Request: fold
Amino acid sequence: MTQTSYTVLSSEETARALPYPELVAQLGKAMAQYAAGTIVAPTRQVLDYPKTGKMLSMPAVSHDIGVHKLANVMLDNQQQELGSIQGLVSVYDAQNGLPLLILDAPTLSGRRTAAVSMLGIQALWPQGPEHITLLGYGQQAVAHCDAIMTLYPKARVTLTGRNPDRAQAVATSLQARFGDRVQATTAVPEKTDVLIALTSSLTPVYHEPARLDRLLIGLGAFQPDMAEFEAHTLLASRLYADDVAGARQEAGDLIQAGVDWEQVHSIHQALRTPAPKDKPLFFKSVGSAAWDLAAARCALQHLNQA
Reply:
C-alpha cells in the first residue's frame, strides 16, 4: 500500500489559490451543475458547543471531487482577538477517495462568500455598482472589500454599523491598500446603489423601505432566529437566493418575514434570464457546500497551473 500525500495550504496560500475572477467563474459553473443535480450538497448540519459556538459540517460531491468543510463559528473569539470562524476544508478525489488538498476554512469561506455576492451583483445589477455600502465590519467585510476592488475597481465602498469606531478602524486599515475609495460613516449613504449586510445580528439592522435604485444583499443571518432586514423591506422586493432549499431552513430574514417561498427565485435563474425591473431586488446568500466545491476546483486549477 502506497503512502498518500496531499497539499496543505495556509490562510495566505488559500487566498492566493482563490483569485476572484476565476473563483466567480467557477461558482457560476457550479450553480448550473447544482441546479442540474450533478453536484450534491445537503443542507449544513449544525451542532451547538456546550458553552458557546457552533460546529458546521458541510459536504458536497461531484464527478471529479468531494469536499467536506468542518467549520467552527465562535462569536466570543472576538474578545480574544481571534477570528470568529475556525476550521478546515478537505478535498478528495472522487474516483478513489484519496485526499488531495487541505484549505483554510475561514479564508475559503470569506472569499467564496464574497464571490457569491459578486455573482449576485453580476446577475441582478449588470450595470455595475458605483457605491457599495457594507453593513458590518468583520472578516466578511474585509473579504468583500477585496472582491469589490478587484472586480469593480471604480466603485466606492462605505463601511457602517452599530459601532462607528470599529467601522472607522477597519476602513482605515483598508485605506492602506485601497486609498480613499474606502470610507466609514455612521449611516447608509443616500447614493448607495448596492448594500450588503454581513452581520451576526438577531434583529434587523436595515430599516429603510425597498428601493428600485438599490440592490440589497443579505448574508449574515444564517439561522431562523437571526434577521438583518425588516419584513416590510423584503415583502416589497423581488426575492432571490443562492440556494433556495437551504434558505427555507436557514434564512432568518425570509423565514421571519413569512415570505411566499414560491416567489423566491434561484440566483442561477437570474444568471440565465435577466431579472425584471418592476420591483426592488433582494438577494439572500445562505451558502452551500456546493460553493465550497467550486472554490476547491478553483484552488486545484490554480495549483496545477503554478
Observations:
- The chain has two domains: 7-108+290-305, 110-287.
- The chain has a mean pLDDT of 94.
- The CA atoms of residues 149 and 178 lie 8 Å apart.
- The first helix runs from residue 11 to 16.
